[in-house]
Design a protein that fits this description.
Radius of gyration: 18 Å
Strand order of the largest sheet: 1-8-5-10-3-2
Order of helices and strands: HEHHEHHEEEEHEEEEHH
Number of helices: 8
CATH topology: Jelly Rolls
CATH class: Mainly Beta
CATH architecture: Sandwich
Distance between the termini: 39 Å
Number of strands: 10
Helix content: 10-25%
Largest sheet: 6 strands, antiparallel
Structural class: alpha+beta
Strand content: 15-25%
Amino acid sequence: MKVEKPKEKYDQLIADGYCVVENVLKEEMLTQLRSVTDELLDAQTEDERAAHRSSGSMISVYTHSLFADLVVYPRALLALEALGFLRPKWSSGYVISKPPQSPPLFWHQDWWGWNDPCSYTALPQQLFLMYYLVDTTPYNGCLRVIKGSHLNRHQLHDILPSAHGESLQRVNDANHPAYQHFSGEADIPVKAGDLVIGDSRLLHASHGNESGERRTVITLWYHPFFALLPTDMQAHIGRLRQSMAWSDADWERIAELAPVCKNDVEPLKWNRNPGPELK
């Protein structure tokens, strides 16, 4: 596939924290992913749904082998290559599906390496690749972001509690600032099969789903410059492998994208809160 205006998309990713590559998933893959995700979501218990009322679900991609195919999906890897990410590594991912008539997803950022100075530079340490399986709008829960918040402090950085904490997930307080609108936010509506690529440091959320249908997204995490990251950060990323439902053959398929740290070092301490260096 050909990525239109790759330099403009790269520049947007670096400056704003995200870009959209259109029409990445072919219809056959899109159909397969809808079928598998619906099966996984139908199998959730009421307790599991209640525990993730805000996000809707947090189902690991390690639960089905089809997601291994998505990790190495050629059209997505070509999109990354067009943006200049020639040797990315992959670490994890989730099926995140907002059911009908569900509340907004809270504001958060997903980066955990704020203890290292490289987290305060322009180049992304980790990217999210989001595949929406239906067309999205503010009505059914499209993504919303705070442009530039991966590099610049926003008031949300100082008022948000721990990301993905139980209280936010269960929506114990629907009036909490984490669910509200803020200056600088932008909606990102997309078509099914489009690919949203974003910096994991970017503050993002989603609207509530007011429609009568599920709004499902599959989020995969890649490290575009893994070989250039500090070794203790590499060590943390390299230990994320899980087994669950994937077979040895599944792991073999993604072997070239597996993050392997060859140095025997202590992994970087997990820290989801940016320091004062983020100004």
